[in-house]
């Protein structure tokens, strides 16, 4: 049961990462996000992946680590929204 709960949380964060990556990609494709903004957003996603990797390194992801990862994902999601709606575009 515990393994199912841990894998469920991990699956949720993986799905969220994929969705955020798709949002960035879509923003670049439509021109809502400039290249510089995309680089900044991708670096934020990379930091979250590294944070997740570090959390799993000891074999146990603590509730505090999970909470911090989720908080960082929410923060990055807000950044994506702001970058897509800041009236700057590629053109």
In a nutshell, what does this entry contain?
This protein is mainly α and 91 residues long. The protein contains 3 helices and no strands.
Can you put this structure into words, describing what you see?
With 91 residues, the protein is an all-alpha fold. It has one domain. It is built from three helices and no strands. Helix 1 (2-30) packs antiparallel against helix 2 (35-57) and helix 2 packs antiparallel against helix 3 (63-84). The longest helix is centred in the first third of the chain and has 29 residues, at 2-30. The protein is elongated and about 45 Å long.
List keywords for this structure.
single chain, about 90 residues, mainly alpha, 3 helices, about 80% helix, about 0% strand, elongated
DSSP strand content: under 5%
- Unreliable residue runs: none
Radius of gyration from the CA trace?
Answer: 15 Å
Give the % helix.
over 70%
Give the secondary structure arrangement, pairings included.
Layout: H1 2-30, H2 35-57, H3 63-84
Helix pairs in contact: 1-2, 1-3, 2-3
